[in-house]
Write a structure and sequence with these properties.
Shape: globular
Largest sheet: 7 strands, parallel
Radius of gyration: 18 Å
Distance between the termini: 30 Å
Order of helices and strands: EHEHEHEHEHEHHHE
Structural class: alpha/beta
CATH architecture: 3-Layer(aba) Sandwich
Length: about 270
């Protein structure tokens, strides 16, 4: 089988200027998709769009607050009207949250921050795009979670519950949207090896744990976290993006309601 994976597909990426969102956007565009980047910071979106355009890809940007349901729906409708529909959507929005604080010291606000933040934006963006997908044109909704959805360790209550919620959301949504010819697949990467260098919030997220062990964030990722996987390494942004492109393509047309485990074997399903 030859040809571009996503030729003539229209893809909306929320959080398109972030580490994962931008990596996926570049691969989607390389594989022939017309990419619509949405996010909070216009200059960061423009930088990603500039890279895509320079490589010959087709891209548009929009400054959108993904917590503003009306704004997200207006943007999705505009994309669908101009492009003729939405084929692929990815929510790569990150919400800063606590990791490392146990129940006795955790406030209800910190516990709820990732649960409300991640799931609220996931609901808003998914509802906006779903109405413009499917029927005679197969649709794909990609979501992101983390190994915390399955791990049994202390100090990640809010993070773990939010991750499990995102996976449940994808599984249940797949059942709802299957009759409309829309697939839903969740990607579950571990902490990403090269995310700190790419400007991800990973550096801030793991800084307390790294400092407690007398390491830099990169040392913490390459050491303890990577060594806890079967492969003894963490996934890279390129690996996540390439997997996302395959899952969004017609070559994965029978996959829905499932999790793509990109944890390097930190979890074995």
């Amino acid at each position: 089988m030859t040809g571009l994976l996503l030729e003539n597909k229209n893809a909306v990426i929320y959080g398109g200027a972030g580490a994962i969102g931008s990596a996926v956007a570049r691969v989607f565009a390389r594989e022939g998709a017309k990419v619509f980047l949405a996010g909070r910071t216009q200059d960061k979106l423009d930088a990603v769009a500039g890279d895509i355009a320079a490589a010959g890809g087709t891209v548009e940007t929009a400054q959108v607050d993904v917590f503003d349901q009306e704004a997200v729906e207006k943007h999705a409708s505009a994309v669908a009207a101009s492009a003729g529909g939405i084929d692929i959507a990815l929510n790569a929005v990150s919400v800063m949250h606590d990791q490392g604080t146990v129940l006795a010291d955790l406030s209800v606000e910190e516990f709820m921050r990732p649960i409300d933040g991640f799931l609220r934006t996931l609901f808003i963006t998914t509802k906006a795009v779903a109405q413009h997908m499917g029927s005679d044109r197969p649709g794909v909704i990609l979501t992101l979670s983390e190994p915390g959805a399955k791990l049994a360790i202390g100090g990640i209550l809010g993070h773990g519950v939010s991750a499990a919620g995102k996976e449940a959301f994808a599984r249940l949504l797949a059942a709802e949207l299957a009759p409309a010819n829309v697939r839903v697949v969740n990607l579950r990467p571990h902490a990403i090896a090269d995310a700190p260098a790419a400007g991800s919030y990973t550096k801030d997220l793991f800084q307390p744990s790294a400092a407690a062990s007398g390491q830099s964030v990169q040392e913490f990722l390459d050491g303890g976290l990577a060594q806890g996987t079967l492969l003894k390494r963490l996934p890279t942004l390129a690996e996540i993006a390439e997997t996302a492109a395959f899952l969004a393509s017609d070559r994965a047309g029978v996959m829905t309601g499932t999790v793509a485990n990109l944890s390097g074997g930190a979890l074995v399903d």
